[in-house]
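Review this fold:
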Amino acid sequence: MQTKKKIPLRKCVVSNQMFPKKELIRVVKTTNNEVLIDPTGKLNGRGAYLRPTLSIWEQAKKNRALERALHLKLSDEFYEELKKEIIEGWD
């Protein structure tokens, strides 16, 4: 009898819904307050997860959900980088 592997779930900071970790984009604030998009999901620091859709991205930018989750102000350049990542397809 084979046991099923447990799929790690994470909550999208915008929609507050749980999704498998691999379906979400992780944005991480490192220990030296640098904000990065984390494709590996393994960087050290405070992480926040987002669904990779433009509507979620727009809501995140408008209601500052990522900024609240990471406890810092994000630049417009970072939001544009995140948008580009979503458009190019997140894997």
